[in-house]
Amino acid sequence: MDLELVLSAAALIGLAVLIPALMLVTAIFGPRAKGKIKDEAYESGIGATIGVVDQKFSVKFYLLAILFLIFDIEAVFMYPWAVSVRELGWFGFIEMVVFMLFLFTGLIYILQKGVLNWR
């Protein structure tokens, strides 16, 4: 057997045993702090919730998030195309123009409906 293979297997087995063992030792012997403040919910610097929990949010926030995702995914499709535009030739160029026309049509529709007007 190859020495590198044996050493790699030994290191992998050693880590597979050492990491759970350290977690177990920490759980057993580690400090525990119980109390009202320690058990209270804490999220992003906001302590206790003040006000009505089930308040309504405007649909505009969700709509803006969906629009961001749509036009962000557009950029994800355009990067591979930009890398391989020379190999794709005119066919790839025409396909991207059609794709961008669809997105531009969607943007015109959004602007005509007044989705981005928040007044």
TrEMBL record:
Classification via InterPro entries: NAD(P)H_OxRDtase_bac/plastid (IPR023043), NADH_UbQ/plastoQ_OxRdtase_su3 (IPR000440), NDAH_ubi_oxred_su3_sf (IPR038430)
Cell cycle as UniProt keyword: no
Primary location recorded for the protein, binned into one broad class: membrane
Keyword match Membrane: yes
Recorded topology in the membrane: Multi-pass membrane protein
Keywords: Cell membrane, Membrane, NAD, Quinone, Translocase, Transmembrane, Transmembrane helix, Transport, Ubiquinone
Top enzyme category: translocase
TM stretches of this protein: 6-29, 61-82, 88-111
Primary role: NDH-1 shuttles electrons from NADH, via FMN and iron-sulfur (Fe-S) centers, to quinones in the respiratory chain. The immediate electron acceptor for the enzyme in this species is believed to be ubiquinone. Couples the redox reaction to proton translocation (for every two electrons transferred, four hydrogen ions are translocated across the cytoplasmic membrane), and thus conserves the redox energy in a proton gradient.
Official protein name in the record: NADH-quinone oxidoreductase subunit A
Gene responsible for this protein: nuoA
